Amino acid sequence: MPKKIVISAFVFFMLSSVFVLYCQTQLRQGSEKISTGYANILSNSGEALRIFNKRIKVGFLSSLLKRKAGMDLSVEGQLSEKVDIIVERVKMILEMHPRNFNVQINVLPDAQSVRAAYRKKYYRDADFVAFYAPAEKAIYIAADEAKANILAHELAHAVIDQFFGVAAPTKIHEILAQYVDENFED
Q1: pLDDT in tens, 128-150
Q2: In whole angstroms, what is the distance from residue 39 CA to residue 5 CA?
Q3: DSSP class of residue 31?
Q4: Residues of the chain with pLDDT under 50
Q5: Is residue 21 domain-shared with residue 39, that is, in the same domain?
Q6: Please, how many CA atoms are within 13 Å of residue 110, restricted to the half-sphere of its CB?
């Protein structure tokens, strides 16, 4: 009888292990991650990342992109460089350079998904295409509505948050983020 229990436990263990590996593979297949010098960009859709990359135009900063990206013309390579260039510009505009700055950027397919994420976190409705969640040090942004200045605005919130280390008053945060928005393409 004990031999049957050991064999049954072993079979159960093996089947459980296979199931866990299968679930992890399914999760990985449904999500994309790009690491940059300053951010981890996450999305459940490669298509959302492609749209996001296409909509984030660095304009006058494009010469930096061409120099830094080198031969990497992939969406991941382009997006990584664009985000780092925008972070550098935001830090320069604010004259704030937090140590070990890092932010998570969650690229969602559309504004409706961003609003749903905001509602789930804060239990209220908002008409945003992007927002910064300070507790997570994370930005949520709609791929189909994204623009470099919108991303810069949200990155400004992250830079301010990490520079001071304590929560600045909401109005101060917003005034400084709007200042970045207004001066981003100067």
Answers
A1: 999 999 999 999 999 999 999 99
A2: 50
A3: -
A4: 18-29, 69, 186
A5: no
A6: 1
* Residue 109 CB partners (closer than 8 Å, separation 6+): 45, 47, 48, 51, 142, 143, 144
pTM of the model: 0.78
User: Is 25 found in the same domain as 37?
Assistant: no
pLDDT of res. 101: 97
SS3 49: helix
Could you tell me where the beta strands, DSSP code E, fall in the chain?
Answer: 32-35, 39-43, 103-108, 130-133, 138-142
What does the pLDDT read at residue 113? 97
The kind and range of the H/E element at 41 are strand 39-43
Number of domains in the chain: 2
Residues 7 and 38 in one domain: no
Amino acid at 28: R
Residue 15: which domain range? 1-30
Q: Are 113 and 49 in contact (CB under 8 A)?
A: no
Distance CA 126, CA 115 (A): 6
Same domain, 42 and 25: no
Tell me how many degrees the CA angle 49-54-57 measures, rounded to the nearest 5. Answer: 120
On whether the CB atoms of residues 98 and 37 are closer than 8 A, the answer is: no
Q: Note the pLDDT tens digit of each residue in 155-171.
A: 999 999 999 988 888 89
